[in-house]
Amino acid sequence: MKKRALLSVSDKSGILEFAKELAKLDYEILSTGGTMKHLKENGVAVIAVDEVTGFPEIMEGRVKTLNPLIHGGLLAKQDDPQHQKQMTEHGIQPIHIVCVNLYPFKETISKPNVSVEDAIENIDIGGPAMLRASAKNHAYVTVIVDATDYAQVLEELNAEGQTTHETRRRLAAKVFRHTAAYDALISGYLTDLSGEEFPEQITFTYELKQPLRYGENPHQKAAFYSRPLGSDFSIANATQLHGKELSYNNIQDANAAIQIVKEFEQPAAVAVKHMNPCGVGTGATIEEAFDKAYEADRTSIFGGIIALNREVDAQTAEQLSGIFLEIIIAPSFTEDAIAILTKKKNIRLLTIPFDQHKKDNWNSVSVEGGLLLQEPDTFGFKDAEIQVVTDREPTEAEWEALKLGWAVVKHVKSNAIVVTDSSRTLGVGAGQMNRVGAANIALTQSGELAKGAALASDAFFPMDDTVEAAAKAGVTAIIQPGGSVKDEDSIKKANEHGITMVFTGIRHFKH
Fold first, then answer.
1. Sign of the CA dihedral running 454, 460, 463, 464
2. Smallest Cα–Cα separation from 176: which of 147, 143, 204?
3. pLDDT tens, position by position, 127-159
4. What mean pLDDT is predicted for residues 162-184?
5. Which residues, 6+ apart, have CB-to-CB distance to 217 below 8 Å?
6. Cβ contacts of 136 within 8 Å, gap of 6 or more
7. I want to staple 18 with a disulfide (CB 3.0 to 4.6 A). Which of 65, 150, 216, 486 is the partner?
8. Which residue of the set 77, 83, 136, 497 is catalytic?
9. DSSP letter (8 states) at residue 497
């Protein structure tokens, strides 16, 4: 009795060549639908599955391989006497190789304005059933879901007449990963349609983008995965024009940079170190914006990541090339800018489509033994119920400084204080255990520039000590959420020093 292979694929890459090689090895080939047509048209002898089952494809092809004569051949223990007896009794022949890939569900739901009906029709049923059956029975069945595995399977068949147990187990594991990812996309799609925010179980799937040299430190292994159908406005989907591959820390910092720069509609530049902004600048041009970001902290920007929300031109590139930077991210670079910047061998140049930004439904953070999910913090100045709680209203310039500070401070690790003028950051105090400590860092960094500047706080002042420190430094405007039981103490202190203070009603903790 000839060995049998069942081939039924949506992605037909390499399937013809694979089938021809199996035929040379004297395999009998079973197939269905489009795969069968493709093979027959190219001279491969094929047996239709309905010839084996004696039952036609029905219900628009929804039912064709779900049959004991197929699944018995996939699940039989081929050296078990009882199984052999039952196969003989029921006319079941064993299937030794299964090559199946699934209806293109991901590709279908990624289409603009796809209908629910079209999405549902592209949920494969028979394919996953065959794959799971074959993978379960990998002691006897070689199951292939990825065309890149054809070559190794053929190599082993030609050398030994069969695949090794190690190969079959590796391929079986790949199948279960594949079907699990497929089901995760389907469950996510249907969960979104049903409007459930926190279902009793949740499954995410990610695809390997690249192994990394190491993680946060050289002794830690790491890899970078991307989310299928994720936002194009992401480091996972960036185009790298130049430079060596990104590191784990590069990716973290680059992500932080683009999250900040997307806050701005006017030309803006953001410099990031260790996931905190060390300089943010805005201007009439992107060159001016970068100049201001650079002036904000000439020391910390060394070895940093820069994100700009406008095309990088030659003039800006000249400025950028004068500093040691790890990464520059922008919507695009002019040819002249690329020529200037690529003179530096190791600098990474990334482009991201800023017009393709879309809101993520959830942010996730892993903790030992669990996962935290939350909505992204998209609350901005325009969303706040602004209250001027002091005697003095902000001036026009102070309003601009307050808006800038509020846009930046939500991206700084808590406790966070940011000091700004109307177009750039002057000092950043990040990740301190008390608020006045963060304020002292930001104000010290600002120095004399704090006079007449604005101060933004990610959360309320539990004491009036931060207002006192701001007043001593010469700050004239403060923006904070408010909500402390001692708010009146801070308001009183601000009025004593002629500081205007604005409450937003919303905090921006970032852990």
1. positive
2. 143
3. 999 999 999 999 999 999 999 999 999 999 999
4. 95
5. none
6. 75, 172
7. 150
8. 136
9. T
- Between CA 105 and CA 93 the distance in angstroms is 31
What does DSSP assign to residue 413?
P
Residue in 100, 184, 181, 108 with CA at minimum distance from that of residue 134: 100
Q: Look at the pTM and tell me if it is higher than 0.90.
A: no
The C-alpha atoms of residue 126 and residue 131 are separated, in whole angstroms, by 9
Residue 476, helix vs strand vs coil: coil
- Could you give the C-alpha distances from 257 to 63, 235, 277, in angstroms and in order? 50, 10, 7
pLDDT at 358 over 70: no
The count of residues in the chain is: 511
Tell how far CA 398 is from the center of its chain.
Answer: 37
Say whether 15 sits in a helix, a strand or coil: helix
Angle, CA of 211, 214 and 217, to the nearest 5°? 155
pLDDT digits (tens, 9 = 90+) for 387-412: 999 999 999 999 999 999 999 999 99
Catalytic annotation, pick one of 3, 209, 262, 274: 274
Question: How far, in whole angstroms, is CA 52 from its chain's centroid?
Answer: 45
Non-local CB neighbours of 395 within 8 Å, separated by 6+ positions? none
Q: Map tokens 């100049």 to a residue.
A: 291
For residue range 293-312, list pLDDT tens digits in order. 999 999 999 999 999 999 99
Task: Answer yes or no: are the C-beta atoms of 386 and 506 closer than 8 Å.
Answer: no
**Which of these, 501, 483, 505, 481, lies nearest to 491 by C-alpha position?**
501
CA pair distance 36, 30, nearest whole angstrom: 8
The count of other CB atoms within 10 Å of the CB of residue 447 is 13
Joined tokens for residue 413: 């690790």
Q: Are 424 and 282 in contact (CB under 8 A)?
A: yes
Catalytic annotation on 136?
Answer: yes
Q: What are phi and psi of 30, to 5 degrees?
A: -100, 150
Whole-angstrom distance, CA of residue 425 vs CA of residue 451: 13
- 357 annotated active-site: no
